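User:
I study polymers; will you set down one protein's sequence and backbone structure tokens?

Assistant:
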Amino acid sequence: MKIKYYHIVIALAAPLVGSCAYLRDRGRDLARVVEFDGGVSTGFQAHAGFSHLLEFGAGYYSGARHGFRDGGFVSVEESRGEFGIPFLYLHEVDQHVASGALAGASVARPLDAGFVRYPLQWFSPQITDREVADFNVSVNFVFIGASFTIKPVAIVDFVFGCVGTDLRRNDLSKYTVDDLVPELHSSDALERKRAAQLIQEITGRRFPEYRVSPSREVFGAEERAAIQQIEETVRVRLGSPSSPRITATAYAAPAARDAMPVPIESTPASRPATVAKQ
């Protein structure tokens, strides 16, 4: 009986293990477990702990960071400010991605839509790049900084992905560009960010102008303009029927045969009725 059970397990697992798309997705899940970066950024900042749960930090820095984030190598111009203790933690980050498929983030200033004076992680819809339970250690001293992160959520996503469940909805094999383009207009900023990042990974194109709004409830003009650019680029690349057409730059007179009237289809005349012999 045990041998039969082993055969059943192998038969069920074989299609998954043999699938290149499946292995690629699992590799991408594993690549998201660890993040690290460093660079030249001015300021004083320190942070240690599990994000949203047990963390301590304070400070601010601004500058360039290069490293491995969200499963790929990136170069990011960012400004980060944070301060607090567990459950009362202020944190916001502004990011412009110079290279890599990472989606950037914007920060709202006073009088901007989505501005929150005290962006507490648990009590405001502010978007940052740290998920719940992320273990992060980072420091910036004068003009040099570095960061190291372990993401438990990514570990859980990998485990569930091994049995066919995509918790974070980031498996490339399950989506096409046509599926993702409508999600760029979602009312949830995190959904738009996910769609923009997956489109970059699927197409290989990069859209550094795209930066997600500072709040889950805001859909700003800057983000809308970047999404329009993504849509136009994707349509041209895929040859969609809605792609812009080339406009004629000159007018030529029609050829003589084109100016002739269109022939009218005719039907043969019916035969006259036969006259009966007297």
Q: What stands out?
A: Residues 241-255, 274-278 have pLDDT under 50 and may be disordered.
